[in-house]
Request: fold
Amino acid sequence: MNFLKHHNKGNILFRLFLLVIILLPTGSFAQKRVLVNIDRSKLSIFNNTTEMWRLLGDVIIRHNDVVMMCDSAYNFTKENMVEAYGNVHIIKSDTVNLYCQRANYNSLTRLAHVRNNVKLTDPKITLTTDSMIYDMATSIAYYDCGGKIVDKGKASTLTSQIGRYFTQRDLFYFNKNVVLKNKEYTLKADSLKYNTLTGKAFITGPTHIYGPNGTMYSESGWFNTKTNISEFSKNASITKGDQELKADTIDFNKLTGIGKARGAISITNKKERYTIKGNKGFYDDKNRRAHVSDKALFIQYSEKDTLYLHADTLYAQENPITRERIIKAWYGVRFFKPDLQGKCDSLIYFSKDSIMRMYKSPVLWSADSQLSANEIEMLPSGPNQSLVKMYQNSFMISREDTIGYNQIKGRNMIGHILKRELYKVDVNGNSQAVYYVSEEDAKKKQKKSVVGLNHVECTDIDIRLKQSKIHKVTFKTKPDCRLVPLDKIAEQDKELPGFKWLGLLRPKDKDDVLRDIK
Reply:
């Protein structure tokens, strides 16, 4: 076995020896030989039998745009392999630096397998792991034993079990147990794609983002760690306290707190037990407001009488001090509850007190009764009790079997509801009434048949209802009455001025509130 020792890094014989090896006939090699340049070594030993160099002390090896420095190395010229040990430092194109304690470099394939305390740095990130393969030809780094990346510009860290780093494209692919942390949030995912230059991360699977004010979830989309702008899709949701937003797509700017949602939108408040649905949405997180349009639907949940309300646009605003939620609806408002239905042009709902105000041609239906006015307000008045306040041009109509309609109108009215049933109506100012009188009313006996139609004018009237029918009428001042016998009733006697039965507009069920009304 023959050895060649070399101590002078500038020795001409050493250079000539390398040249002879390069010029040897290719037939004497099992594969193509791609030799590296040994720039420096305090001690060089060559094994002529195995064609292996043993390099010791301040070793510097160069190959194309790769420079490798280490304490010692083996250069297997036959296998195109360099094994480096101790304080290994590899420089790629003067931009990527690799540090480790042990490295294998194949000059033919240009693959470097680095181990033990591995650190990769470039101008943007620092990557640490225990074992990594770096392809010098494609500038791609790969690890599968767990790695940690520190983004220098964003002061964020990312860990994953598997990672690929395309250094020339500034692109990372992470898989399995991915965790991204910075001072603003923590991300957990099974897979993630990240651009170190733009700071843009691409979600490619189930992903949770936890922040001080809530949690985001998505299975597809992207977010920018530098601009704090994001777009989430596929089962996207944002949960903040008792409130959750879901949609097909959610766009959000963390700096401004403004976001947009599209497709199958659902905003749910668990504490206040309501949901807002639609297909287009806008929300302002800082000012606690949001609006939804395109088949917008507001649902106020209750064990007995859940409210379903539809409008062209629904707007929600939260008072930052009282935390009261105000819901506004406008254009084509229609709602349904088992005991009450209604329509109007615009509406305001105060969640704290459950007060609802209806504007512009509002109409309410309760059993066989229809209530209308210029403006209507509904509010709770006690356990299982509520009031319906009607302002200006108040009009109440109720069916009297198949004969016709009982009607009462006045300036203002107050309807009293007990256990979801309208049982009393107070009419205040300019009261007028047209209602059918039975023998029970005329003769104080058991009801047998209708005897006529009573016309009444009075300042104020109190009306009692029983099973949604007028049961008793009380006049607070002396009335002007005119009873028309049943066989003498003319068509003009049957209706008060302004009479309009709007039963065709009445929502039949919770799904009917979405019906287009022409």
The first strand starts at residue 3 and ends at 6. The CA atoms of residues 326 and 350 lie 5 Å apart. Residues 12-23 form the longest helix (12 residues). Helices lie at 12-23, 439-443.
